[in-house]
Amino acid sequence: MASRAGSTGIDASLYRREGQWCTALFDASLGTTAAHEAADELPETVSKILASQQASEADIRAIREALVPARGCPAPVARFVAVNDGEVVVDELIQGLKIQDPDVDCGPFPNLVALARARGGQFPYLVAEASRDGGEVRLYHSSIQEVGERRGVTGDPEEAHHARKVPGRYDEPKNRSATEEIWRRNADELAKQIDELARENYVKLIVLAGDVKARELVVGQLAPASKAITTTLEQNTRTGGADQAAFAAAVAEHVNEVVDRELKELSEKIGNRTGNGRSDLALGFDEVVAALQQAQASTVLVNQFQDDESLVALTSEPWLEGEDSDDHAELVIGSWPAPEVLLRATALTDATIRYVPEGILPEGVGIAALLRWPTGEARPAE
After folding, report:
1. How much is the pLDDT for 175?
2. Considering the domain 275-371, what is its CATH architecture?
3. pLDDT for position 155
4. What Pfam families would the database entry show (predicted)?
């Protein structure tokens, strides 16, 4: 199964794999006759480009097999595929991205820039729906419509409602207690699934809906860390007449609130550091490169893509250098457009990357980095 890039749009383990890489970004829309015709011609077009870049037969075959349109998805939608030594390791749809011509690339490391720009800043979140006889929890990523993982809890409806079927007996304390115990057991199991998914995926938001009593029971069983990021919707979505469109809109509103809050926090951090002697903030291309060379950057912030710049990629630390430098000649892989090399160095130094809108960085600054330790000080001992 192809792996998903991380919440910053990158996965450092991909850059550590050996062998040749091929990537393809292409229009996956289907909705017009022209789109269908383009999809039919795409495998041959991409194969010719790959062959011209000396891709192996195994890589060409793997890419061709992955050139699948996004059936059922509204246009525009693109698909990004990365192949390593004949194996598809990334295969993702990018909603809302319009692609005119296929972008195909081969090299010693993957070009994940398009994916990072689409995914940078995304975060995982959970949507849980509870009922008295079970429920479901689904893992999503904020810029991806499809479900990442789904887990369900299915109780026994007959068992749960047995007391109701015995006339006059549900109100008896013994039967009522037994029924409520079944509800608590189901809620406890759903809460455990929520806690586990939240912990494993570092989720930033949990949205809980469903039956009122079931919601209360689930919230009561959640771990403190999960409870702190849980929002409850007053919607019983586990009924046949539930308004799913209203439910989806409510979830989207809470997701957007998290995005807005994070951008506000980033803006405040930059503002505070700009006015504090700027020792823990790198501003501009050269300063960000220097910070990445020392693994000093914790978060790289990009407002302008730096497409006109080039950098040299290195096989090991410091991972990159300027084209005019010859300090690490023995480590040189080659020269590439700066966005590719910057992204690789960001991943390999365990930093994150955010592509931010206007107004977050100081005026005239296209790229910046929040630093792990102040410039001029020694690197902290690990």
Report:
1. 54
2. 2-Layer Sandwich (3.30)
3. 65
4. baeRF_family2
Give pLDDT tens digits for 152-181.
887 655 555 554 455 555 455 555 566 678
CA separation (Å) from 255 to 168, 219, 261? 46, 19, 10
CA distance 204 to 4: 18
CATH 3.30.960 maps onto the chain at: 12-119
CATH of domain 124-261: 3.30.420.60
In the chain, CATH 3.30.1330.30 covers 275-371
Beta strands in the chain (DSSP E): 21-27, 77-84, 87-95, 103-107, 124-131, 134-141, 144-154, 205-210, 230-232, 281-283, 297-302, 310-314, 320-321, 332-337, 352-355, 367-371
Angle of CA points 354, 358, 363, to nearest 5°: 110
The token duo for 262 is 């994070």
Alpha-carbon distance of 198 to 363, in angstroms, equals: 38
Average pLDDT over residues 85-97: 90
Q: Are residues 24 and 94 in contact, defined by beta-carbon separation less than 8 angstroms?
A: no
Distances (CA, A) of 368 to 245, 274, 275, 303, 380: 39, 11, 15, 9, 21
Residue type, 247: F
